[in-house]
Design a protein that fits this description.
Length: 776
């Protein structure tokens, strides 16, 4: 495979490896971005969603009379109006441990007979204005016979717990197992030492800067829907809406995504509100717009994490890992998201051994339905928490066995000479040097100087702790991605690909790859991702795979464009194709000074160049790229915290990291991605948690009640890199978007526990919890 390697990288100003500023930023920072709420169509009406205020109950009646009489109201839709619609699919094909299919309860657009969580959509009001729709929604009267509710996954799986669905005993929709249970049992029985921990992977609100919104319209002449909404991939959302929701051919649905103000996994698939919106547009014969508010987002956007894990690790007398077991209760919420149990099952399995030689794993997961908001993928989606479990076990085992924290990791790390390494997860690590990354991080963080820093903190009345976390992620599963290049009339070149930028900076990084490969001027390159009608395939953005998939697609498309260009240039330069060489954006007749630049060739084609039938008629390319196997970004993060013993407040005061992301296309963007992921990890570790009361009401339903990390919670980051190129994709990249979370959870919480003298504490380590831990 022709992979980009560090030694091959050009020193071009806009080439691969250069810290090129984001081309998107001037538009976004000056308020010229176009988000869904910025779009307004002629004649549009407005929708507002009526949501259940009770967590569980039977719908006895819905009184619409007073609401329909309100000014400006055009229609009100309930479940009976959506009788011909499908449901939101859970697309993962998991089996129970006994081989039977998992339970996949129907997820309708509007609640049909039963509401199952606070925020469950029951009706949509459509009116001439947004305020009229909101006012009328308050007049919709719901008669709901309340039922008992359960919000904790461990409690929900017990005998006698309130049941959300008939035919789903104990609310367990999937009883999952992976690994060799008998071998694990033998390893634990014969171990010199066993470490056990119960760990909470706290549920979090995604809280993207831009709330969800959408505009639906319908063209009766073409019998085609157009849907404008924030997403993580227009092609995938189009397919889901057409196939599962509307049950129409895919060419009868067009999805357009403009700028997206954050997603982190949450905007990856269809939502219930989209059903009545599409129905209303067709029935009313006019566009209908819906914009959620923050209160609605807190109860209806997919939330993240939400697991309780009994984790255990078996060791021999020298501290070598013999086996790892994880027994997981995973909260699914009231309905399954499109990926449903995957973060708590397959993703956990793939990432659980991290960078450590682990002969045997045994993973058991009960995926449990509760009367809460649906759980979906959230930055890392099973990968950060799997690394967190292992790192907490290793720190605890080191203390219990009297082994230094660094030493126990060194004894168990997979060595460079063992790669390619086939893990018990079924993954084969193709590249990496984990001990080198580790040693570099120890030195880079000045681990040996910590005692002096701790003494200085103690002199100020503060408790200081240091924590380390190795991590490894499994990113970018195989798939297809579009590689499209289009030479425009205005002299620009458009990259067309099916990933989607919702904050990552794709335009800049993708342009660097194309510029490096083809010599097309950087400032002439544009990017198109968000129109499903322009795509032949598209994997969307998720799983830290965009550079691997779209980058590879761009390289393949660039090579195809060069080959087409050689044939056209041979005709223009009146020579054989075999004589045409290509370098630095120019086609040259070998051994001569006769040449033509690629952009000049494109100009001639636009000007009506007469080409023979057996010669390509343009430089344009449209292909489906087969993406490579997964990649394995890894690294080592070191955090230091200070605790105020009088208040329990935890501050992250020092943070160092060394990462292996393979070939880094744009180091500035990559470091920024790491910063963002770390801050979200700090948020989960120290302050974020969705809470419900005993009746099932959410008590963290706004930013007044739910703590988010701010700038003052983020330390100055120290960043270093130790890249080992990936061998399984054309770019050599490994993915970086979610790695910050994976390194932050373990390093921050290990530092907190260290500051507490080794006393375990669960996330989030809030001031109250820390104070109670200190004061008994």
């Amino acid at each position: 495979m022709n992979v980009l390697h560090e030694s091959d990288l050009a020193t071009l100003k806009f080439g691969v490896g250069q810290p090129v500023p984001r081309g998107e930023d001037p538009t976004l920072l000056t308020g010229r971005g176009e988000y869904t709420d910025d779009v307004n169509l002629d004649g549009q009406a407005y929708g507002y969603v009526v949501r259940s205020q009770v967590p569980h109950g039977v719908i006895k009646g819905i009184d619409l009379d007073d609401a329909l009489a309100m000014p400006g109201v055009l229609a009100i839709y309930t479940a009976k109006d959506l009788a011909g619609f499908g449901g939101i699919p859970c697309v993962v094909p998991f089996k129970n441990r006994d081989g039977s299919d998992m339970h996949k309860p129907r997820r309708p657009g509007l609640a049909e007979d039963v509401v199952r969580f606070v925020g469950d959509p029951v009706a949509m009001v459509v009116a001439e204005t947004q305020s009229q729709a909101r006012d009328a929604a308050e007049m919709v009267m719901l008669d709901i016979d309340e039922l008992p509710a359960v919000t904790d996954p461990v409690e929900a799986a017990r005998d006698g717990a309130p049941q959300l669905y008939e035919g789903v005993p104990n609310n367990v929709c999937l009883d999952y197992h992976y690994g060799d249970a008998e071998a694990a049992e033998r390893a634990f029985a014969g171990a010199a030492h066993v470490t056990k921990l119960t760990l909470v992977n706290n549920r979090v609100v995604v809280a993207s800067m831009e709330p969800r919104s959408a505009i639906a319209s319908y063209d009766p002449a073409e019998e085609k829907y157009t849907f404008i909404a924030g997403s993580q991939g227009a092609f995938g959302l189009r397919n889901a809406l057409a196939n599962a929701v509307l049950k129409v051919p895919t060419d009868k649905v067009r999805v357009i995504t403009k700028n997206v103000g954050g997603s982190f996994g949450m905007k990856g698939g269809p939502y219930p509100e989209y059903f009545p919106l599409l129905h209303a547009a067709k029935q009313l014969g006019r566009p209908v717009k819906w914009v959620d508010d923050r209160s609605g987002a807190f109860v209806s956007d997919h939330q993240g994490r939400g697991h309780v894990v009994d984790a255990s690790m078996a060791f021999d007398r020298d501290g070598h890992i013999l086996a790892l077991r994880a027994d997981i209760h995973a909260d699914m919420g009231a309905y399954l998201s499109p990926v449903g149990p995957q973060p708590a099952t397959l993703n956990a399995v793939k990432n659980l051994i991290s960078v450590y030689q682990t002969p045997v794993i045994d993973v058991n997961a009960k995926c449990v339905l509760t009367n809460t908001t649906t759980i979906g993928p959230y930055r890392g989606a099973g990968r950060p928490e799997a690394n967190y479990y292992v790192e907490r076990l290793l720190d605890t085992a080191a203390a219990e066995m009297g082994i230094d924290r660094l030493e126990i990791r060194r004894r168990n790390q997979i060595r460079a000479d063992q790669i390619p390494y086939t893990a018990p997860s079924g993954m084969t690590y193709d590249s990496g040097d984990f001990p080198a990354v580790f040693d570099k991080a120890v030195k880079f963080s000045d681990w040996d100087g910590f005692a002096e820093r701790r003494a200085e903190s103690e002199a100020r009345g503060r408790l200081r702790g240091i924590g380390m976390s190795d991590y490894l992620e499994v990113t970018g599963p195989p798939g297809k991605e579009m590689g499209g290049l289009r030479f425009e009339e205005d002299g620009t070149v458009t990259i067309i690909t099916g990933t989607l930028d919702y904050g990552q900076g794709h335009w800049t990084a993708f342009a660097q790859v194309l510029h490096q490969r083809t010599g097309i001027p950087f400032d002439r390159i544009r990017l198109l991702q968000g129109d499903s009608d322009e795509l032949i395939v598209g994997g969307g953005t998720g799983g830290s795979k965009s550079m691997m998939s779209s980058g590879g697609a761009i390289i393949e498309a660039g090579d195809a464009m060069i080959e087409n260009g050689r044939k056209i240039a041979a005709h223009v330069l009146e020579t054989a194709v075999a004589d045409i060489e290509f370098a630095d954006g120019t086609f040259t007749v070998a051994g001569t000074d006769r040449s033509i630049a690629i952009m000049d060739l494109a100009d001639q084609i636009r000007g009506g160049l007469d080409l023979p039938e057996d010669v390509p008629q343009s430089l344009d390319v449209s292909l489906a790229h087969e993406t490579g196997p997964s990649a394995f970004p890894n690294g080592c993060h070191v955090a230091e915290v200070e605790i105020d013993p009088d208040t329990g407040h935890v501050a992250v005061v020092r943070y160092s990291m060394v990462n292996d992301f393979g070939v880094v296309v744009n180091p500035m963007l990559v470091e920024g991605q790491a910063h963002g992921g770390i801050v979200q990890g700090i948020g989960q570790a120290l302050m974020e948690q969705v809470r419900y009361d005993e009746s099932g009401q959410i008590v963290t339903g706004s930013f007044m009640d739910y703590a988010m990390p701010r700038a003052e919670e983020a330390p100055m980051f120290r960043y270093d890199s130790h890249p080992v190129p990936c061998t399984t994709n054309l770019v050599g990249a490994k993915g970086c978007g979610e790695a910050g979370c994976a390194g932050a959870l373990g390093s921050v919480m290990n530092a907190v526990v260290d500051a507490l003298g080794g006393k375990h504490i669960d996330m989030p380590a809030t001031p109250e919890r820390v104070w109670r831990a200190l004061h008994g």
